[in-house]
TrEMBL record:
<keyword id="KW-0443">Lipid metabolism</keyword>
<keyword id="KW-0444">Lipid biosynthesis</keyword>
<dbReference type="InterPro" id="IPR036291">
    <property type="entry name" value="NAD(P)-bd_dom_sf"/>
</dbReference>
<keyword id="KW-0560">Oxidoreductase</keyword>
<feature type="region of interest" description="Disordered">
    <location>
        <begin position="262"/>
        <end position="292"/>
    </location>
</feature>
<feature type="compositionally biased region" description="Basic and acidic residues">
    <location>
        <begin position="421"/>
        <end position="430"/>
    </location>
</feature>
<comment type="similarity">
    <text>Belongs to the short-chain dehydrogenases/reductases (SDR) family. ERG27 subfamily.</text>
</comment>
<keyword id="KW-0521">NADP</keyword>
<keyword id="KW-0752">Steroid biosynthesis</keyword>
<feature type="region of interest" description="Disordered">
    <location>
        <begin position="408"/>
        <end position="430"/>
    </location>
</feature>
<dbReference type="InterPro" id="IPR051593">
    <property type="entry name" value="Ergosterol_Biosynth_ERG27"/>
</dbReference>
<protein>
    <recommendedName>
        <fullName>3-keto-steroid reductase</fullName>
    </recommendedName>
</protein>
């Protein structure tokens, strides 16, 4: 790990990790974190921003751009921001579980605690555009066409490179995982689990912030194909999965699995990660499928130091996730601005405005945030804009869940930015969403336990 010069140790110090920080919403999130931390926190408080990229070249470029941002923001200040803000570059390939484990071990060995993980990195698998469909839908229904696009062409069945494994026997013989699934969800899931001890040591007990998408619809996720290996909507499936996991993370029916996930793979005093084979045996566990045997009766309420899980999305930003020639990129920008002027609240267009929701969740007062989710229900927080471009955070309707997981929310269907055809959440919808959440948590925990056992301890 590169040596990092931290601000003075006797000052209050926050640590925030942002994955996929080299471009787009990830880089904008880092810039916005710097700006808002400086303006909302006392001058004696300091921040270490841990930014991950996939290569050393991207890491150097990201740090260079963030240092330039710090210099620009310091121009009118008596004291340069580098005395309050330190940058810590790290390399991480989320499609490699060994890379995930290596980073987690390094952070556990070198950080006193971790306040926030912003799980932003991802992979879209988009290979092109169905232009006839794109032109027809944009001309006939502009806002919905570019909010919930049906014209993207994506690859099917992409897998990661074979993971390095130990000789531990497990329930699956495959040495690979779904690439989009692993990059967007499972890699972050494993990383967050490994880092639970650092998160729990935070004064606010830590936050896991999953960055989803407004495109995630109920039809995109098939729990029988949770890795979306057979789907041509693997990206949208991964984002719907993130929604389901986050929104059901505090329900009684998912407690057995969430409790295991939040138990972490090491104690806060340990300097290395313990693979499950080395953990004390659970006499009630069936080692052939640890993720399936848990029942509600086995649940032990998480300690008050357990991290909290939140979900957000950046609205619709003009990023490079869909490869386009320059002229078509400008056409896309014009369409986005037109949708905003028509009245769409979700077309943030710029990545900096798109970073509004994740940064707000990262820096918001803990008691205020928990009170909002306790009163209004657990929700999906989105970055939004008015016609003039003023951004704000707005709760987003999620299919089968609504705004806060409550039945009969009368304002939901007529809420600005709600997808046409959305109806009030019924009892059957709510029960189905909760059952889906339990099944997704069960499968994710089963996969986590299996793959942890398959990776050699460093």
């Amino acid at each position: 790990m590169q040596e990092v010069l931290h601000p003075r140790d006797n000052e209050q110090h926050s640590y925030i990790l942002v994955t996929g920080a080299n471009s787009g919403v990830g880089l904008a999130t880092c810039c916005r974190l710097i700006n808002e931390f400086v303006t909302t926190h006392p001058s004696f408080e300091c921040l270490t921003l841990i930014v991950t990229t996939r290569s050393s070249d991207k890491s150097k470029d990201t740090i260079r751009r963030l240092e330039q941002h710090l210099e620009r923001q310091s121009k009118d200040l008596d004291t340069p921001l580098k005395h309050r803000i330190s940058l810590q570059p790290e390399q991480l390939d989320l499609t490699s579980l060994r890379s995930v484990q290596t980073l987690a071990n390094r952070l556990i060995a070198n950080l006193p605690h971790l306040d926030v993980i912003i799980c932003n990195a991802g992979y879209g698998s988009v290979t092109g555009v169905n232009w006839p469909v794109a032109m027809w839908t944009v001309c006939t229904d502009l806002v919905n066409a570019i909010t919930y696009p049906s014209f993207k062409i994506s690859s099917v069945g992409e897998t990661t490179a074979p993971q390095q494994m130990s000789t531990t026997e497990c329930s699956s013989t495959s040495s690979s995982l779904g690439k989009v699934f692993t990059s967007n969800v499972f890699g972050h899931y494993i990383l967050s689990h490994f880092l639970v001890p650092l998160l729990s040591a935070s004064p606010d007990h830590g936050r896991m912030i999953l960055v989803s998408s407004i495109e995630a619809l109920p039809s995109h996720l098939d729990p029988i194909d949770i890795q979306a290996l057979k789907s041509n909507k693997a990206y949208e499936s991964s984002k719907r999965l993130a929604d389901v996991l986050a929104l059901t993370s505090s329900l009684p029916s998912t407690k057995p699995f969430v409790q295991r996930f939040l138990s972490g793979s090491s104690s806060s005093s340990s300097k290395t990660i313990k693979i499950l084979d080395n953990e004390p045996e659970d006499p009630n566990a069936d080692t052939r499928d640890p993720g399936i045997v848990l029942t509600d009766n086995e649940y032990r309420a998480p300690a008050s130091s357990s991290p909290r899980i939140y979900i957000c999305h950046p609205g619709i930003c003009a990023t490079s996730i869909v490869p386009l020639p320059l002229i078509l990129y400008y056409c896309m920008m014009a369409a986005f601005y037109s949708a905003r002027w028509i009245g769409s609240p979700w077309h943030t267009v710029s990545a900096y405005k798109g970073a509004c929701a994740p940064v707000w969740l990262a820096l918001a007062d803990k008691e205020e945030l928990e009170d909002m989710e306790q009163t209004e229900g657990k929700g999906k927080w989105g970055s939004s804009c008015d016609r003039t471009g003023h951004e704000r955070v707005m709760r987003t309707v999620v299919g089968g869940w609504g705004l806060g997981g409550k039945m009969g929310e009368p304002e939901m269907a007529n809420r600005k930015g709600t997808r046409p055809g959305t109806r009030e959440v019924t009892k059957e919808d709510r029960e189905g969403f909760e059952e889906l959440g339990r099944e997704c948590w069960r499968q994710m925990e089963a996969l986590r336990v299996e793959w942890e056992a398959r990776i050699k301890s460093e």
